């Protein structure tokens, strides 16, 4: 068994070395396409992180007075307000977020920015009612109605702010995915062609192997492995690129755009299975397909 | 060892052209026999060789090689069939960047034999073909006759039951050819069945073995101690 694998691996490496320029082209094109794929996946992570768990639930935040800008809301006022909101025909859902909960959510959202978290205590953030409207367009009615309510500090339509940002990010993300897919198709065609050239270069050896009774997989595996090794290196390159680039970009963005959580190293590390999986799958599939007709018994 | 029953093979050439390479051929080759397949170019010799190794499949008829029915043989079992057949080419087909010993070992390596088996069998078979001194030479450093000996060593290293030789002396001078024939004769005496397609009248006449003559895809003669042609 080891003797077998030694042969297959040795042949694959010989093929890669003999065809160095083609190998480099494959590695680069896989790396470029997977970097784009990884970037678009990370963008999706970023959007999810920033929108938080209430992504499409919360459209309106009603922040409550805590005694700093206006006299602290009394428990009766709060109960009244909650009852009024829940009874309002425009409102679908009301969630109360206490000061402590607001702090916990903040800590979770900004876990990559400990300096920011350190400036905040459980007392800093106001408690709020988070309100989902049946029809988000009716925000102004709610605002007009509850703005002057006793104990209400301010009302913010978060949906409006977020939607604008995320519609832009979505365009970027979809664009990146489309380009990544086109690149991946190009990369797989390149791999198929490289493997075909490699098989053609060794057709003499292959024909001898067939006649002495080497099994089909014994003949094909070195070529498939050749593609898979190149694909894996390409995936590794794209991963390293993202590992280096993403934390730099997000740390700069953290400075420029305050109060928005950004993804960090952890998310990039967890994207590895996608990159390697896609790289290996595409390399193996296109190698096998390109060999199917060429090396049949 | 080899049985052909009413075997026909037609190649399609272009739109309408068809070439009948073998027409209703029946042939029986017993264990340990030495058979010459003779006939002019295009008579069907190569087609017959390709059918025996299942590079091609017959259009009609039945074909048995080493106890296997080639018509019903599953594709994944074809390599197992070929491990029982040694194949010798006219143009040797040695790998130019491998040494003599590596070329022979290659046949064992690619069917998954262990290093231990290679270390034992390769020197044995190189001694059989008389090239134990040349085991580290590269093919281009050898004469044509020596290269053909290497190719025979490679075909025989896995101890096949059948040795198929396609014009093995076609590229060699008469004297070298005699040496190759002596080697094939020696291999035949170890019990291997040898089938040799050839044009070489001189060799066929001197060996006095069974001769099967093909013409336009038909067996026109099958003589047990034959010569190349009636006139010869």
Query: Helix count of chain B, per DSSP?
Result: 7
Span between termini of chain A = 23 Å
The best one-word shape of chain A is: elongated
Largest binding interface between chains: A-B, 18 and 27 residues
The end-to-end span of chain B amounts to 30 Å
Please describe the biggest sheet of chain B, giving its number of strands, its sense, and whether it closes into a barrel. 6 strands, mixed
Contiguous uncertain segments of 5+ residues of chain A:
none
Strand order of the largest sheet of chain A: 2-3-1-4
- Oligomeric nature of the chains: heterodimer
Succession of helices and strands of chain B: EEEHEEHEHHHEHEHEE
Q: Radius of gyration of chain A, Cα only, in angstroms?
A: 29 Å
Question: What is the beta-strand fraction of chain B?
Answer: 25-35%
Shape of chain B: globular
Q: Please give the share of residues in helix of chain A.
A: over 70%
Ranges of chain B with pLDDT <50 over ≥5 residues?
none
Number of strands of chain A: 4
Mean pLDDT of chain B: 91
Summarize the structure.
The complex is a heterodimer of chains A (297) and B (232). Chain A is α+β, with helices and mostly antiparallel strands and 297 residues long. Chain A is 70% helix and 8% strand.
Written description of the protein model:
The complex is a heterodimer of chains A (297) and B (232). Chain A has 297 residues and is α+β, with helices and mostly antiparallel strands. Chain A has helices at 2-18, 20-51, 75-87, 99-109, 114-118, 139-146, 158-201, 203-211, 216-256, 265-270, 272-294; strands spanning 60-64, 91-97, 128-133, 152-157. Chain A is built from eleven helices and four strands. Chain A has a four-stranded antiparallel β-sheet with strand order 2-3-1-4. The longest helix of chain A is centred in the middle third of the chain and has 44 residues, at 158-201. In chain B, strand 7, helix 6 (174-189) and strand 8 form a beta-alpha-beta unit. Chain B is of the alpha/beta class. Chain B is globular. In chain B, the strands form two sheets. Chain B has a six-stranded mixed β-sheet with strand order 6-7-8-3-9-10, sandwiched between helices. A four-stranded antiparallel β-sheet of chain B has the order 2-1-4-5, covered by helices on one side. Chain B is built from seven helices and ten strands. Chain B has helices spanning 45-52, 78-82, 100-109, 115-128, 144-156, 174-189, 201-207, and strands at residues 2-13, 17-29, 34-38, 60-65, 68-69, 85-88, 162-166, 193-198, 210-215, 218-223. Chain A binds chain B through residues 3-4, 7, 204-205, 207-216, 218-219, 297, and chain B through 53-54, 75-76, 78-85, 87, 93, 95, 106-107, 109-115, 154-155, 158.
């Amino acid at each position: 068994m080891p003797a077998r694998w030694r042969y297959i691996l040795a042949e694959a490496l010989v093929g890669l070395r003999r065809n160095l320029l083609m190998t480099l082209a494959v590695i680069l094109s896989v790396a470029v396409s997977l970097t784009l794929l990884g970037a678009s996946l990370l963008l999706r992570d970023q959007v999810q992180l920033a929108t938080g768990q209430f992504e499409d639930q919360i459209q309106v935040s009603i922040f409550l007075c805590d005694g700093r800008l206006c006299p602290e809301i009394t428990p009766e006022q709060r109960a009244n307000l909650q009852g009024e909101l829940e009874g309002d025909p425009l409102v679908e859902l009301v969630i109360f977020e206490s000061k402590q909960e607001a702090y916990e959510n903040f800590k979770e959202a900004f876990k990559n920015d400990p300096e920011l978290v350190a400036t905040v205590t459980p007392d800093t953030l106001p408690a709020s009612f988070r309100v989902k409207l049946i029809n988000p367009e009716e925000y102004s009615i709610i605002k007009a109605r509850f703005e002057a309510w006793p104990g209400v500090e301010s009302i913010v339509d978060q949906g409006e702010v977020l939607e604008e940002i995320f519609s832009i990010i979505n365009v970027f993300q979809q664009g990146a995915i489309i380009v990544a897919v086109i690149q991946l198709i190009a990369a797989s065609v390149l791999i198929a062609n490289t493997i075909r050239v490699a098989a053609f270069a060794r057709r003499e050896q292959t024909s001898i192997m067939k006649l002495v009774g080497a099994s089909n997989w014994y003949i094909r595996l070195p070529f498939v492995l050749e593609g898979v090794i190149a694909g894996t290196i390409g995936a590794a390159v794209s991963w390293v690129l993202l590992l280096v680039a993403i934390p730099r970009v997000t740390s700069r963005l953290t400075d420029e755009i305050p109060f928005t959580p950004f993804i960090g190293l952890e998310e990039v590390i967890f994207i590895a299975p996608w990159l390697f999986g896609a790289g290996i799958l595409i390399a193996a599939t296109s190698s096998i397909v390109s060999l199917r007709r060429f090396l049949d018994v | 060892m080899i049985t052909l029953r009413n075997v026909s093979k037609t190649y399609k050439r272009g739109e309408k052209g068809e070439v009948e390479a073998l027409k209703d051929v029946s042939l029986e080759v017993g264990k340990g026999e030495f058979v010459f397949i003779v006939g002019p170019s295009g008579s069907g010799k190569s087609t017959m060789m390709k059918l025996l190794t299942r590079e091609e499949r017959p259009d009609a008829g039945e074909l048995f090689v080493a106890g296997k029915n080639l018509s019903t043989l599953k594709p994944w079992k074809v390599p197992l069939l070929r491990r029982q057949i040694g194949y010798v080419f006219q143009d040797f087909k040695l790998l130019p960047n491998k040494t003599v010993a590596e070329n022979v070992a290659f046949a064992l390596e690619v069917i998954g034999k262990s290093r231990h088996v290679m270390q034992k069998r390769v020197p044995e078979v190189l001694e059989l073909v008389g090239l134990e001194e040349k085991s580290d030479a590269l093919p281009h450093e050898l004469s044509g006759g020596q290269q053909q000996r290497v190719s025979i060593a490679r075909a025989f290293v896995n101890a096949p039951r059948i040795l198929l030789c396609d014009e093995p002396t076609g590229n060699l001078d008469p004297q070298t050819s005699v040496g190759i024939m002596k080697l094939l004769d020696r291999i035949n005496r170890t019990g291997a069945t040898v089938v040799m397609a050839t044009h070489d009248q001189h060799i066929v006449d001197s060996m006095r073995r069974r001769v099967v003559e093909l013409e336009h895809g038909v067996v026109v003669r099958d003589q047990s101690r034959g010569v190349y042609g009636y006139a010869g």
